[in-house]
Every structure is written in structure tokens, then in C-alpha cells.
Request: fold
Amino acid sequence: MNMAKLLQVSDLRVEFLTGRGTVRAVGGVAFQLDRGEVFALVGESGCGKSTTALAVMRLVPPPGRILGGSIRLRGDDLLTLDEDSMTQVRGRHIAMIFQNPMVSLNPVYRAGAQVQEAIVLDQVPKNEAWRRAVDLLGRVYIADPAHRALSYPHELSGGMRQRVMTGMMVSRQPDLLIADEPTTALDVTIQAQVLDLLLELRDRTGMALLIITHDLGIVAEIADRVGVMYAGSLVEQGPVFDIFEEPLHPYTRLLMRALPRLTKGQGSLHTIPGQVPSLIQLPPGCPFHPRCPDRMEICSTKMPGLTVPAGGREVACYLHGVGERQ
Amino acid sequence: MLEYSVRRLALGVLTVLAVTLVLFSVMQLMPGDPIRLLADPGRVPPHRIEELQRQWGLDRPVAVQYLYWLGNLARGNFGHSIISGQSVSVLIASRLPFTLVLALTSLLLHYLLAVPLGLLAAVRSGSRLDRAIVVITTALRTIPGFWLAILLMLLFAIRLRWFPISGYQGLSSLVLPVATLTLPMLGGTVRLTRAEVLETIGERFVLTAYAKGLGHRAVRLRHVLRNALIPVTVMFFLSLPWVVGGSVIIENIFAWPGMGRLLWGSITNQDLPVVQGIIMVIAILTVVCNTIGDVISGLLDPRVRIELEEGR
Reply:
């Protein structure tokens, strides 16, 4: 029914087969994105947000594998495509920029050549592609792009490398750009510039953005909607303003409280007691119940389904109803 | 890049100088006196011995002797063989081509075999094929060269009579010594290639290459192979002097008329000038090959280039 959605992920499950056991990295995640929308997936390290993003690209590295679910791009399930067709999707329809631009660009090729390499894929002649690459580097605010295109990655600063990466990934005008911790390795002023750049590109091209981050500050600044992940599950999602204003899931609530508030001026930082569960041996029921201040009898027996309160929100918690696992 | 190469070259010249100093010191520390070998003090009057010492410059200070010797080396004058009286440079020049042919053929053949095997092992990593390649080539590595040589001789020269047993009788004589040198070398290069490819496949920039829409082939060729083969290529040049040194024993077993055989004969005959000359040639070859390896590494990897241009 929702065929118009740009991206519709449902019941996505990914696991890693390791020597110590099976890691259930992503356990039944569902979310969707409209054209031009900015959706942020937040969570702690190891909660499965990056794996979710890689799964959308079908680039989960071994020993990981996508167990099931569907990833529909304008209705077509990417999980049913053969490898060649998926190659056609990558870069052209969905592109992705990675966390650490230091190691995400190939050290032996010039910055411009790495952008050119993407453009050539759309049957653009080489010299025309180079011209466009230089042009793109200018549009991602790299000063003196004709000269910088000839630089090797190690000759560029972290911020510039992330711009090169961004330019490379938008060069084929994808409908969706996934950004995995796009600003984590950068200092704060550069972070703001990169975020502004991403929003500007969204405005100009109408592409949708899927931002993966652990930084609620970034979420507040850039996202339209946000999904909160915990131990491989999406526990809550909704419009960014609502989630910040009135978090429904106890985990989201504690996460918001753990944010340092400059206005309060004093006191210690709040933390969430307990530890993130091992993804090899998840507790039965809701994965958050061992740390949850509001846990009930049922929480340790059965995973709550998604409840849809109102206003485009979803939450997986018995406090808000039994829900239905989709 | 030019500045970098010049810097490497200067470093190489210094290394050769250091080798000459060590070599000269060893000569000084050696027991025995060449004059006493030439003229028995029991039968030759002392004034004649002094005259001989003057004639050969052996009455001069050690430092002067060293500089004199260095000057001769620089002009390509390595002295004369005590045994045959032939010029050492002429002797070495007649043998060096044989050694280089043997070493280069073995090295090239071993690369032609080991690099594709290493790639195959990496691409099929974890499979039975991968394990078989690694285990077999590693096992070959543990076989001592002299023993392998004798086995090959017994089978292919004596039993099957496919190849000459020893000496140099044309190209067919190359087969057995080349096989003896090549087989044990495979293991190292297979493992290096495999490890480099596997490491590169795990790099983030490979993920980037896929993410921008490149297919498997392009990613493997342009991003995995291009990067993984840098150390493998450099290793070729670093191995050459090692193979030349390692072929001494093999040349003797196969009576190959190369420098290694000359070295062996000169050592047993205590023909010092020849031994020194050969050691100098191997030292120079080592330095030259290392320099080429460094320059190639700089050409292939811009990071190395910058590091060196910044003088680190």
C-alpha cells in the first residue's frame, strides 16, 4: 500500500557467525524514509545501527549475513536482487559515506580520481568526468578544487577528506544518502560544516538522508525523524521534536536524561545503570528489561511488539500497550 | 620524487663505504702475512722482505692502505687472484652473468607461480584450496636446498635423463638449479600475497569503492590488487641479493659456473682478493636492489613518497 515510500525496511534481521556464538546484530528492524526526508538512527556503540545501514547497501561484511526481512526501494526488494543488479543500485540510487574519512579513501589515488571513478560509471567520458569531479569538489566547499583534486588523501585534512567522500557519494545523484557517523572523527567546527553541507545537498537535490549516529546533538540539528536502537532492536521512532519533548520508551527517556544540560549548570551527569547486553546471549523478552526502571512481569518473558500511539510514532514497550510484532 | 631517489642513492653509497671499512678491518685482523707467504723469511734476507713490503705499500699506515685500496675499488680494480694471478674484476665479470641468469630466472618464475597462488588462496580464503596452497608451499619451504637438489638430480637427471646433471650445457642446464631455488621460495611469497590481499579486502576504502557503485571486478583490480601488490612488488627487489647469496651452495651442487662457485673455491683456497671482490659485488648488489625497492615503493605509494620528501 505504501508503494510511494522511497525506502521501506521491514523485519530486517542480520547476524554474525563468530567463534563465540551467533551475534544477533539486527533483530527485526523496520523503518521507512520518504523523498527528501532526514531520518536518524541513534544508539550506543554496538546497538546494530551501522550494521543496519550496511545491510541497506547489502554490504554487511562476512561473517555477517542478512537473515531475512525486506528492504524495498520504491517497492522493489533489494534483498531479492542478484549481485549485478545490486551493483547498479549502489552509488546510483543509494550511496553511503563512512565514519572515518582517514581510512575510507584509497591512499594511492588522487582525490579527484576517486570522484571521477564514480562519475565514469554513468557512461561519462573520462575528461568530462574529471571536469565534473573538480566542479563537485568546489560545490562541497573545497577551496581551489582544481588543485585539490590532484591531492592524495593523506595530503588533505580530515574535514576535507569527508567533503571529498561526500562529493564522491553525491556525484551520481542518489535518491538516498546513508551517512554512518559522518562527523565522528572531525572536530566540532568541522562537524557543523559537514552537517550543513549534507542538509544543503538534501535541499538542492531532494535526496533523502539516513544518518547513523550516537550523538543526540546531531540528531536534534539535522533529523526530521529519529529511530532509537537498543541491542539490535528499534525501540522507538517518531518525529524528532516529539521524541525529544516526550520520549515514550524508558531507554529513550534515560538516554535523553543522560544528555549534559548546560542550563542546569551543576550536578553530576546522569548515566543509565547496568550494561548493554551481549548480542550473543540476549535476555529473553525486551532486551532492555534488566536495566529498565519501569519493568513489569511480562517484560522478561516476551518481546513487546510495536505500538502506534499517535502522531506517526512507534514504540516497543508494554507501558504503551501490547503492540503487534510486524 | 627525484630528490627522494637521490637521497636513497646517497644513503646507498654510504652503506657501501661502511661495508668496505668492515671488510678492510677483517682483512687486517686476519692472521698471516701475505709477504711471508710470498717470501719465506728463513730463506729470503730481511732487507729483501722490507723491499717487498715497501713495494706493496704494506709499510704505510693502515689508514693510508685503506684509502689506497678504496681508490682502487672505485676504479674497478679489485686486485689479482693469489692462485691464478688473474684480475679479480675479470674473473667476477666472467661469472656474474651466470649467477644473475640463475637468480633472476628463479625469482621471476617463483613470482609467476607464487603471486597467482597467493591471490587464489586469498580469494578462496578458508577453503580447502586455500589450505592446500598454504600447506604445500610452506612444506616446500622447509626442504633444505641441498637435499632437494640431490633428489631432483636423482630423479630428472639420472633416472629420467631429462636434464643435464650439472655444469652448463645450454638452457636445459638451468632447469634443475632453477627448480631447486624456486620451490623453497614459494611459501614466503604466497603467504605475503595472501596476507596483503586479505588485509586490503578488509580496508574501509574497499567498502567505499563498493558503495559508489563499482562492481566486484573493478573493486578487486583497482582497489584491492593495486594496493596489496605494493609490498609484493618491492619484495622482488629485496629478494634478489638474497637469492644471489643463497645460490652459492646450489651453484656448487650443480657445478654452475657462477659467482657462488667461484666464491666457494676461493674460500677453500684462501684466495682473499677474490673473496673480497665477490663480497663487495654482493654488497653493492644488495644496496642497489634496496635502493630500487625504495624508489619503486615511492612510485607506487604516494604516502611513502611524501614521508621521504619531508625528510623522515
